Amino acid sequence: MNADPYRIDRLCLRYLDAIESGNLDVMAELWGIAEQDDALATALGELLDGLAAEENAVQNVRGLVQQHLLSGNLPPPTIVNTVTLGDVARQLKQDARDPQQRLSPEDEAINDALLQSQAAVPDPAQPKEFNPWLEQNPPGASQRYRRMFRKTAMLLWMAKSQEPSFLMAARPVKPKPPENPQ
Known about the structure:
The chain is mostly helical. It has helices spanning 7-21, 24-34, 38-68, 85-95, 105-114, 127-136, 143-160. Helix 2 (24-34) runs antiparallel to helix 7 (143-160) and helix 4 packs across helix 5 (105-114).
């Protein structure tokens, strides 16, 4: 029996903190642990599903605000930069320096061939588009490589989609006067 019943909860909180701060190293570390821990892999998958659902809810609310409130004409969010095959391949090559993330010679050859590709990778948070695409791409890759590719693509999409200006309130806030110590 696991001595720490809150271990998964703490790791999920650490993952959320890493998402909010854009810390790809911590996110990758936790996915590395999840490769050996089915309970953590399930929890992180459910967490990502919940975040995707939350983002959809935010988009729905934003649409309703714009439709029904005169003051709801917020500027549209910036289009997320597309993640390319080359972006994912470069990150996988960098991650391969860790012995646990090392690629097989066959997968390394496939990865090296993708380094210069500018082909767009579908958003992994949209499984209806991403999963069929991943079954076919990259051709000849092992299942292990595809799992690593999915994780890395998700991390890169999340990092590129952080839009700090939309995490703040729509109304301007008066800056607080500096505190003068007496």
